[in-house]
Structure formats: C-alpha cells, structure tokens
Amino acid sequence: MSHHNVVSGCKLVAVLLLWLGPPAEDRHAGRAHAAEHQEHTAHSSVGLEEVVLVIQSQRNSYHARRSVQRKAEILHQAAELGQEWFLGKRLHDNEASIIHHYAFSEDPRSFGYPDPAAGWALSVPLLHRLAERIQHEHLKSDFTIDLKHEIALYIWEEGNGPKLTAVPEFCTEPRDNCATTFTTYLPNCGDPVSKKDVFVAVKTCQKFHLERVPVVKATWEKDAGFLEYYSDVTDASIPTVSLGVPNTERGHCGKTFAILRRFLSKDVPKADWLLIVDDDTLISLPRLRRLLRCYDPKEAVSLGERYGYSLIQSGYSYTTGGGGMVLSRTAVSRLISSGCQCYSDDAPDDMVLGRCFTSLGVPITHSPLFHQARPDDYSETLISLQQAISFHKHWNIDPVAVYKHWLQDTLPRDEL
Predict the structure, then answer these.
(1) Which of 35, 190, 291, 392 lies at a C-alpha separation of 20 to 30 Å from 10?
(2) How does DSSP assign 287-336, residue by residue?
(3) Tens-binned pLDDT, residue by residue, of the chain (416 aa)
C-alpha cells in the first residue's frame, strides 16, 4: 500500500469525524458542557477507536459489494497507520562506494538512503522503536562517515526494519505539490573573501612530486593567492618547503602541526584563513572563497567534511583531511596556545585536530560541499545539485577531467 493511501486514509478519518460530530452520549450531556468540550477537543488528539465511520450505500447488490469493499479498504488503511514508515527523497549508489564500506556491492542501487536537503520523515511507531533501541544497543562502527546512509542502514536493521520509501513530495528542486524544497549549500553572504585572505598549504612528499604535484599545477594552483608545498625534502623546481618532519606512511600529524606553527609565524604572509589539503585533493578555491564569506575569521572556525569517532561513547567530530581542512587564524592560535599536540608524528592529523578542538570547545562545522572521496563514490543525484568545493583521490580516474567537469567554473576568472 502506498504512502498516498495512508495519507488519504488520514484525511478520510478527519473529514468523517468532523461530519459526524461528537458521539451521541456527548450530545445528550447538555449544552452546559459545550464550551468545556470544545476546549478539551482543541487540545487533545482522538484515537481511531473513538471514531465511528459511516459508509453511505444503497439496497442493491452492486452498492452492497461496493460498501463491503470500501469497509475493507478503510480497515486496511487504519491498520497501516500503526506501521513503521521511513519516507524521503531516495538516493542510491551507482557503484559500490568506499564511504559506505562497499555495502550492497552486488547491487548498489537496491538500497536507498535519504537526501537530507529534501528532508525525511519517520512514523511515530518507528520513532518510538528506534528511541528504545538506541538506548540499549551500541552502533556497529566507531566511525560516522556518511550519516544519511548510516541512518538508513540502522533503520533497515538488516531487513528487520523498513527501507526508505521514496516520496515525490520531498523535493530539492521547486515543482508543483512539493512539501519541501531546497535552495543552495553555497549561500550569498556578500563578496567573496580575498585571495590574500586564504593561505593554502599542500602536503606532499618526494615520491609524489612528479605524479601528483603536476595535477595541482594544471588545475587549481593558479587560483591561490598564497600557496606553499610542504614535503620531506626541499625541491626548488616546485618549490617545496621542508619542515624537518620525516615522511610517514600513515597519518601526518607531525607535519600538520608544523604547518600550523608556520602559519602563525612571520615566515609567511598573514592571512585570516588556512586551508590544508593533500597533494591528491582537487578543489575550487573560488567557491571556497564564496563559502568563507559566511564565516567570521575572528571566531574559532574548523570547517570541512565532518566525520565522527565514537560519538555515542563521548567521542568527537573532526574535519576529514582529504577533502580539505579550513581553519580560521583564531582557531589555529587557540589550538597552538593550548599545548594540545600529536602523540606521534604518524598519528592521523585530522582526528588529532578534532580531538583537540573538541577539548577546547571549538565546534567542527560541516559542509557537504567538501568530499573525502571521488565523485563516483557519491550519489550523482546528490552532487549534481551541489557546487562542490573539493574531491579527493586520483585512483581509477582522470583527475584533470574530474576537476574540469565538477569544479571548474565557466565564469571569467575576474568574476569569481
């Protein structure tokens, strides 16, 4: 039975209730209680067991069959009202995605999850069950990567709960009969911040100088006002800056904290914002500057794609590094002066920063325009409606083609 029939059933109950008026015993209770009754009904809900439905029919076989059929339909609709519903605009993966832990790899399209821009809804019975369940059951993963997909998985409960039901009234583009709609993730907050107000730090290492750095130079480097490449060696042809931190195979916490200290030093031009990216990050700096106009650099701001670690057990959020980490000068200053630091040079820098900022009470601000993975790892329906700011990783793609398709604006450069 579709959600339209459920909604129709609700309307039918409401209309017949108004038509029939109060039960007979209330009508005979006397006019003295009329005002009190009206006030009570205005502030309380009525259960289906209190509603009498009258089906008007006629005395011949055709109308008798019709009335029996209509009675069965109404009873079925009433039963559906107590069921669990998960409604929204449906998204799905076109191929198995790393950000969804390759779930449903045999048929990625088979599982739907909601587009948060359109909104989504739960029936009250489902909400009650989930609220009870979450009190007694730990999440299966310590990491929160893509909340909308993980919520859909949690509700589905390996087939024991409902899948998302696609509802056309949940919209992201305006059209007739929309219950919701959406404007933009990139609001107009005034003029973009100046190029000189954003200092760009690119993390690289010697083995990627010939492979990844040329991609940065061929795509987005020219949009930067101030940019430095930080490597484990000095290479004048790029040029790179060596911070005296050896390259590590895992996290790059030591290198990142050295970048933070350099950003506050007199060795580089003073800027309001610091952007830290990997050498295989693709980014639109003009779009970033348009986004940053909505934020005050005098506040402690940590901005990017937000992930979570052990959030149910008093964990923390963090800005994932591959999509780009944007920090206000105030945030960097508070972090460095706090004494919070890496527990090792190869610790995951983005997670350590998140832990430090959480301890300092600095919020991690999420923007869905930053992406830790490739365009193919996200729903095309979703990212086609965005003006994406970044993507990450070069494997199995042509990074220059990805940049031109998803990130390069067509407006003349002096208008960006």
Answers:
(1) 35
(2) HHHHHHTTS-TTS--EEE-EEEESTTTT-EEEE-GGG-EEEEHHHHHHHH
(3) 444 444 443 433 333 333 333 333 443 444 444 444 444 444 455 566 677 888 888 788 888 888 899 888 887 877 776 789 999 999 999 999 999 999 999 999 999 999 999 999 998 899 999 999 988 877 667 889 999 999 999 999 999 999 999 999 999 998 899 999 998 999 899 999 999 999 999 999 999 999 999 999 999 999 999 999 999 999 999 999 999 888 887 889 999 999 999 999 999 999 999 999 999 999 999 999 999 999 999 999 999 999 999 887 789 999 999 999 999 999 999 999 999 999 999 999 999 999 999 999 999 999 999 999 999 999 999 999 899 999 999 999 999 999 999 999 876 444 44
Find the length of the chain: 416
- Are 403 and 344 in contact by the 8 Å Cβ rule? The answer is no
Nearest one of 283, 361, 292 to 324, comparing CA atoms: 283
Which position has the token pair 């790393």? Answer: 98
C-alpha span between 290 and 194 (Å, rounded): 9
Question: Using CB atoms within 10 A of its CB, is residue 330 exposed (0-12), middle (13-18) or buried (19+)?
Answer: middle
In the chain, the largest separation of any two C-alpha atoms, in whole Å, equals 97
The DSSP bridge pattern shows strands 273-278 and 198-203 to be parallel
377-407 b/e with 16+ CB inside 10 Å = b? bbbeebbebbbbbbbbbbeeeebeebbeebb
**Which two structure tokens, joined as six digits, stand for 252?**
């790059």
Strand (E) or helix (H) holding 230: strand 226-231
